[in-house]
Amino acid sequence: MDCSDPFISTGFVKGRYSAAVAASEQDLEAAKTLRGLCFDLTGTDADSFDRACTHVLIRRVDDNRLVACFRMLSLDGSTIGSSYSAQYYALDALVKFKGRMVELGRFCVHPDEPDPDILRVAWAAMTAYVDQNDVKLLFGCSSFAGTETSKYFDAFATLRDRHLAPKYWLPKVKAADVFQFAAKLDHKPDPKKAALEMPPLLRTYLLMGGWVSDHAVVDRQLNTMHVFTGVEIGAIPAARKRLLRAVVG
What we know:
By secondary structure, this protein is an alpha+beta fold.
């Protein structure tokens, strides 16, 4: 594995957890195993994108247990069509985006590890990578567990009302099985219910000023629904940037 990225050699430790980029085949297999567990698969989770991605592992310091992982794929407007997300969303509008992009994917936290500091350390690791590599757009697919849309009407209605992508970046429908919540959902959201329904990863994106597609893709193979999610780095509130950088600090 390529160890030329400065984040790979340094990583960081914060409190009970460490963050580092996978530097061996054993690291990568550990991430695939955790992904399989989180996606309720009988074995590991792997696909053709793994070899092109940088994989970040979050471990508990005292016993080296892997508690979270995610992967990153570096792209720009000319290559966004080769992203994982482009399999499910028509991303023609983002071809015009100027600057480096990173696709964040397979974000998993061990189901037996509820400590919120894990998520904070993971996002701090992403922040370090973004800063070091002058990334302008962070994007990915934010997943809801299961494929029953009615369980998440309040969350989807909130996304429709408050968090849709700007029209000039809005992904178009490409997948065959989608829920077009912006156009077809007639529901007034309950803010408390919406907050409970919203996946933690998506909540974090939204707190950073993120936006979403106007439809969700139904992935019956992984038993999830996901929305395309983007965060323009320049639009992240300054106070939140300071909080994330302080974790690495």
